[in-house]
Amino acid sequence: MKVSRYVLCVFAITSCLFIKSTLSCNGYALKVNSIKNCRENNVIRLDETFSVTLDKNCNLIPKGCGVTKAFKTLNVKYTFTKPPMAPLEGTLNGCELMESNPTVGMLLSAFALPTKCPVKAQKICVNGDKTLSISKYRMQLGLIAGNMKLKIDGKHDTGNTCLLLDLSLNKK
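The structure assignment produced for this chain is given below.
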């Protein structure tokens, strides 16, 4: 009787560990701590309830809505922080990047965002039916695990955009 309880207990613990790791990407879970529009009148505005989850097949699954005003240009200054690393900062031409980089195009498409300029005024919503696979990066997730913040400052021909994203990627 004692042996069968021991075997059952080991089986139950092993099953829980297996189930826990299969319900996430390589054992990692993504949490959106916050998304903030840091300007009152952003050209690109995301709902603060916008979320992104990571499934067991390593797909990013966005849910939520956003609004874009019309614009023809997008110059971005970004700051990515992830302690203990030094902040990563840079600038880029968003319109050129959208049109020249297939990975950026896939990311934008998964989030139902425009993939080229000019951009028309529109409300955009995704309900989890679009995904973006990051499975080719599954073995590198440990390198970026932890808390991350991204600040995006965009200048358009029609105004400005400022977004603050606070994310956590943790082992389950």
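Interim note for the steering committee: The mean pLDDT is 84. The longest helix spans residues 2-22.
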